[in-house]
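Issue: ligand-bound run for adenosine-5'-triphosphate - logging full I/O for the record.

Environment: standard queue, default settings, no custom constraints.

Inputs:
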Amino acid sequence: MLTIEGLSRHFGGVYALRDVDMAVARGELRGVIGPNGAGKSTLFHLIAGHLRADHGGVTFAGRRLDRLPAHRRAALGIAIVFQEARVFRGMTVRENVMVGAHAATRAGFWTAALRLPAHAREERLIRARADAALARVGLDGWADRPAETLPLGRQRSLQLARALCAEPRLLLLDEPASGLRAAEREALAGLIADLRRTGLTIMLVEHDVGLVTRLADRITVLDLGRVIAEGTPEQVRGDPRVVAAYLGEEAGS
Ligand SMILES: Nc1ncnc2c1ncn2[C@@H]1O[C@H](COP(=O)(O)OP(=O)(O)OP(=O)(O)O)[C@@H](O)[C@H]1O
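Outputs:
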């Protein structure tokens, strides 16, 4: 489904990502872990097209993405839920989700924002898709509430619904559990597991290694921009290089 070859990106003198190879199978849930600054977010931004690579490339569903801007990659089925993503205040839960679909449609965000007449039919379609996405994350009873009144755990579900509304084939989740309380984390983990069971390919960056270990089929470990280990959660957990990388982080912080 996704093949990454020799992917590199530097900022100034620092390699955020260096010579990364990775292959993610269709329907797989791939965990990506590593200490702070390991390059996890950079990897996601390179896949989604928000950053350009210095070297190497990304192939998605048989297609080279390297020259495609982010919106073309979104149209091909790549959705990203950003770290620290926010809900739009002053909009309902449903409207928040509809923005996700507008971003991926031909008419686009501005046509939607300006409410042009050509947009009316598409609007109904998108509303139906938004409601389906809300149902998928268990927010169907919340559609008409102001988004900012949702508890944080439900706001994360809303961000997931927004991504799902574009009907992606690959979902990139950048630290979806950060800042959540234990019960909210559990609910989110259940939701991600449900999405995986529907056949969606998911990549999950998360500092909560326990959560990744429970959810992922395979885990890739990054450190200082390089892949230092990859395998099943059991294989990765026992890998001395992984233990050393995390011990290094603890000693340094
Ligand atoms: N836009 C940027 N400009 C300069 N340096 C950057 C930029 N983005 C990332 N970096 C650097 O690249 C390296 C990798 O950063 P990245 O955010 O990808 O790591 P990360 O694994 O996601 O970290 P964290 O777990 O702390 O979010 C870090 O050294 C970071 O400071």
